[in-house]
Amino acid sequence: xxVMAERASSQLSVDxxxxxxxxxxxxxxxxxxxxxxxxxxxxxxxxxxxxxIIMWLIRQCMRARPELDLNPLQxxxxxxxxxxxxxxxxxxxxxxxxxxxxDWAEPDGVLMVVEVTSYDSDTHxxxxxxxxxxxxxxxxxxxxxxxxxxxxxVVHSNPDPAVGxxxxxxxxxxxxxxxxxxxxxxxxxxxxxxxxx
Length: 197
Fold this sequence. Notes:
CATH superfamily: tt1808, chain A
CATH class: Alpha Beta
Structural class: alpha+beta
Largest sheet: 6 strands, mixed
Distance between the termini: 15 Å
Number of strands: 14
CATH architecture: Alpha-Beta Complex
């Protein structure tokens, strides 16, 4: 579940957000903080099915691309001019890519970000609109959205900071899906059908 808090356009800086997120994260480990499109997002720790989807994808990536890590904890600087802060459900990058980068890493060198929808009131705006736009503005080559509501996988590729991702492909859970370069991974998603609820 995510709760978004509106802000006045110039009242909260990225530096202030990072301090709030660091302090609050130490006080309550059941939420993760994001700053997308000028709003603070409080993202509750995921449920078992959500976590099972991420672990399934981590195993697929490790088998097919052992030179890469799918990190479920790394925060990224996103949006135009890196003014946003996102905590994707997974960030695919070369092994040890994030060593020494801290909580909020630059997106340069990231091959793919992964999001899994949650069952909350702002999933549509956050996961299907705001985050794809922020990831495209940051130039991340591939964004994979595992959409449990629609029982589908949506692959965004060919980012254009001015318009978002130019290529969007949707597959149903259970189908084989090829993730484009630079990920170059084929997923048989039949197993994911059991985790969609």
